[in-house]
Amino acid sequence: MPCMSTSAACWTAGQPAPYLHLARTFDLVEREKGKIKTTAMLCNMFRSLLALSPNDVLPAVYLCTNKISPDHENMELNIGGSLVISAMEESLGTSKSKIHEMYKTYGDLGDVAQECRQNQTLLAPPRPLSVRDVYSTLRKLSAISGGGSAGRRKILVLHLIRSCREMEMKFLVRTPVRNLRIGAMMKTILPALAHAVVLHEKCSTGPVVSLEDVKSQLQSLSTEITEAYNVIPNMDLLVPSLLCEGATFAASSLAMVPGTPIPPMLARITNGVTQALKLFHGRAFTCEYKYDGQRAQIHRLTDGSVQIFSRQMKDSTSQFPDLVNMIKELCNSEVASFILDAEVVGIDRNKGNRLMSFQELSSRERGSKNSSIAIQNIKVDICVFVFDIMFCNGQRLLDNPLRQRRSYIHDLFQEKPGYLELAQQLIVEEDEASIDNSSTLHRMSSFFEKACQSSCEGIMLKTLDIDAGYSASKRCDSWLKVKRDYVEGLGDSLDLVPIGAWYGNGRKAGWYSPFLMACYNPESEEFQSVCRVMSGFSDDFYKEMKEFYSGEKILPKKPVYYKTDEQPELWFTAEQVWEIRGADLTLSPVHHAAIGVVHPSRGISVRMPRHIRCVPDRSPEDCSTATDVASMFRAQTRKMEVSSDGPGAGHQ
Fold first, then answer.
1. Which CATH number does the domain housing residue 580 bear?
2. What residues have CB less than 8 Å from 341, skipping those under 6 apart?
3. 290 is a catalytic site residue
4. By three-state DSSP, how is residue 94 classified?
5. Model confidence over 318-366: pLDDT tens digits?
6. d(Cα 294, Cα 303) in Å, to the nearest integer?
7. Cα(first)–Cα(last) distance of the chain, in Å?
8. Where in the sequence is the domain holding 482, given as residue range(s)?
C-alpha cells in the first residue's frame, strides 16, 4: 500500500488544521454505514493531522465524539435549539418561520442550515475556521454563565456560523445541539486513531507499507488503546500518551489517577438463586446484598481531598458532603489514596437504621458544580456500603482477584454501623458450590429473602478466586445479579402512547431512540409521560417508525396537553398504542403520570421498560389511564414510603 500523500490536504504543515478537514470527513462518514470503511475514513483524517498538525489531534478527537472534555468534568455546552435557530436567522438571512418549516421537512437543524447557506450569496469568502477555533469556542460557550449569558453565547455561535465553508455549516450547527449524527462511536474512533498512529510511523520509514506486515500491529494497538479507554476514559491523558509512545503504547502504561473515574464493572442478570448457583458450579463466590441506592465511586486523592462519582462517572461530590466527612473521619491515617466502589443508601437512623428506597434517597438536594449542599439542609441521611476497591496507595488492583481486593478494604476503614459499612455478604467456597448441595441452596435462598426483607433489590454473586478481576466498563459472567424484580416482575403491562423521541446515536443514528411514552388522563384530557423506552425493538421496527413519524406527525412544538418535564428532540402526534412491560413502578420528579394521586408533586414511572408489541386495535385515548397506573403502583409487591412533604412520613 503506498503511503498517503499530504499534497491533497487543504492546509500545509505547521498551519492549524482547518475545520473543513473534519467536516469533509464527517460528510463521507455520514454517507457510509459500514464500520470498516468508516474506520478507514477516520484513519485517513487522523493521519493527515499527525503529519501536518499533530497538536490538533486531541481537539479533533473531542469534536468527532461531540464532546469538549472528559465526561467527569461535567462541562456542558449549555446551548439550546432556540439559541441556534436565532443565530441561524440572523446570519443566514432567513426567518424563524422558514427555519421551522424546513425543519419539519428535514428533521435536522444542520441540514436546514446547510440548505440556507447554499442559497445565500456572500460578498466575500469567510475566514477559514480551524479545528482549534471551533474547539476553543465551544469550551468558551460552556463557561459562560450569569446575566446576559444568552446574548454572549449567541455572539460566539454567530461567529462560528458566519465563518462556515462548504459542508462545515451542517456539522457545526449539529455540534452545539449535541446531535452530530455521523454514526461514529468511540469504538470506531479509537481503532481509527490507533491505525493512523501505526501507519504514520511506518510511512515515515518508507514510501510503501504492506498491510499484511502491519495487520497484527494495527489490531494490537487498537486493542491496547480501547482497553486503556475502558479503564481511564480521559482523552486528555490518553491521546498525549499515545502520541508520545506511538505504536509501542500499552494500556498498562497509562497510570490510574484518583480524580479520574473508572467505568464501573457491571453484572449479568439471572432469574433466580438456582440458576446462579449452576453458573458458579465449582467456584468459590460471595453473595452480597444488592442495595437500593446510588452507586458511588469514592476517590481519595494524595492531598487528602475526596471526590465522589456516579455510575455515569459524573462528579457528585457536591451532593454528598456528609459522605466526604465520613471518609475523612473513618479512613486510616496511613492510607494516602484509593478508589472504592460502593453504594450510597438512604437510612432512617431514628427507626433502627432502616434502609430507605432509591426514590427516597433521590429527594436529597443535588448541589451544583461549584457549590455543595449545606449539611444542615440534608433531610435524608445516608449509609455507605463498600463492596470493592480498584486502587490503593498507588497500586492498581484491577487484576487482583476479589478475595485479595477484599483484604485491602478491611485495612482501610473502621466500620461505623449506619454510616460506613462493608456490604453484607455470604461466602460459598468451591467445595460447597454445587446445585446438588441442598445446604448451600438453602443458605443462598435465605440470604436472598433476608436481603429483600431489608429493603434491598436482591443479591449480587461474585467469583472470589477464578476470573475474579475487576473488569472496568464490562458486563461479565463473574458478577451475577438476582433481583426481586426479575423473580416477581411487574404484575401487568401498560398500554402507552409514544408522544416524542430523541434522535438515536451510534448504531441507531438515523432512527428514533429512545421514545417518550405516556398514559392518558380522561378527566383532564392530557397525555402524561410515564417513561422513556429503548428496549424491545428490531431494526425493521426502528425503520418503520422513522417513516411513520414524519411530515405532519412531527409537531413543531410541545402541545399544551402533553404533561412532562422531559424535553425530547421531537414531539409526535398521538397516533399509536404500544404494550410496555417493566421491572416495577417508582415515583418520578420528571414524569407526570398520575401526578397528585399518590404524591402531590411527583408522577409515576416504569423502571426498565421494554416494548412488547403494538396494539393496533386501541386508539390513543383508550390506552392505560393515570388511574390504571396509580392502581398498579399501589398493588405492586414492592412497597415504598410516600409522603406529601418528603420521604418517610407515611407508608403507601
1. 2.40.50.140
2. 264, 265, 295, 297, 386, 387, 388, 389, 390, 470
3. yes
4. coil
5. 999 999 999 999 998 889 999 999 999 999 999 999 999 887 887 888 7
6. 26
7. 70
8. 266-488
